[in-house]
Amino acid sequence: MIGRLNHVAIVVPDIAAAANLYRTALGANVSDPVDMPEHGVTTVFVTLPNTKIELLQPLGEKSPVQAFLDRNPSGGMHHVCYEVEDILAARDHLKAEGARVLGDGEPKIGAHGKPVLFLHPKDFCGTLVEIEQA
Amino acid sequence: MIGRLNHVAIVVPDIAAAANLYRTALGANVSDPVDMPEHGVTTVFVTLPNTKIELLQPLGEKSPVQAFLDRNPSGGMHHVCYEVEDILAARDHLKAEGARVLGDGEPKIGAHGKPVLFLHPKDFCGTLVEIEQA
User: Fold this and answer.
1) pLDDT tens, residue order, chain B (134 aa)
2) Is the confidence metric ipTM above 0.90 for this complex?
3) Which PANTHER family does its entry note (chains A, B) (predicted)?
4) Residue A113 pLDDT
5) A121 neighbors A101 (Cβ within 8 angstroms)
6) Which of B54, B83, B130, B132 is catalytic?
7) What is the pLDDT of residue A94?
8) Among positive and negative, which fits the CA dihedral A27, A28, A31, A35?
């Protein structure tokens, strides 16, 4: 069912510093920061030959990644995102297998403009999993 | 400098259960478990179209991932591995940029039979980074 690894998301306390680190120390192709107020994050995309790393800094008072940063002040890996062909079919299969879908279970439009859902980390070995309709 | 994302490593408490979860709930292509006593882990490889997820369970008394599992009993994302063309050149560049290389700074032969180094998570936004000479 799952296809490509779309991205790994890393929450960071200072996105300018993180972008500089990936650009200079790791020598990667790094975008400018983009504020996404509707998602509560500022994002930098690190483009690798086969996938992306997304650096996320909380934006605004109700950022969905603020609690993670409070628990991990240095930052850390936040989630992985797997692509699926049909997000509703994927959701129904996952629910039938006993996985919990976060929120109301209906796909939302994610940061890439595509439908996404998040799966409960306790059902996936402590890893927050996003699925995105590719 | 960094090239492909070689893999994301996820430490799990029960590798048979984790393999079954990735095979059945996520419908992925999952290998049989492989014991790697020289690395202190049992590994399952989840092959995605563009990269790999490596599920790791501690093996033996001195497993390098046991402390992580003790802190995260449900498991969690442990590290990301980026490919580099020349690991010694990469190491020297990273050191010059102020990044700390773990251990004695000399590449070891990793689980894929290739030279690897690990970089201090405090220097990479709370993320343990492995570099592997591809």
Assistant:
1) 999 999 999 999 999 999 999 999 999 999 999 999 999 999 999 999 999 999 999 999 899 999 999 999 999 999 999 999 999 999 999 999 999 999 999 999 998 999 999 999 999 999 999 999 99
2) yes
3) METHYLMALONYL-COA EPIMERASE (PTHR43048), METHYLMALONYL-COA EPIMERASE, MITOCHONDRIAL (PTHR43048:SF3)
4) 93
5) no
6) B130
7) 98
8) negative
Domain span holding position B74: 5-133
- Name the nearest CA neighbour of B75 among B14, B4, B5: B14
CATH number at residue B16: 3.10.180.10
Residue ranges of chain A whose pLDDT lies below 50: none
Residues A28 and A22: beta-carbon distance below 8 Å: yes
Query: H-helix or E-strand containing B15?
Result: helix B15-20
Find which of A84, A92, A125, A132 to mutate to test the B interface (most B CBs within 10 Å of its CB). Answer: A125
Single-letter code of the amino acid located at B83? E
Residue in the structure block whose two tokens are 């991990």:
A72
Q: Are B10 and B54 in contact (CB under 8 A)?
A: yes
Q: What is the mean pLDDT of chain B?
A: 97
Q: A80, A127, A130: which to substitute to probe chain B, counting the most B Cβ within 10 Å?
A: A127
Position A130 scores a pLDDT of 98
How many structural domains comprise chain B?
Answer: 1
Quote the DSSP letter at residue A21.
Answer: I
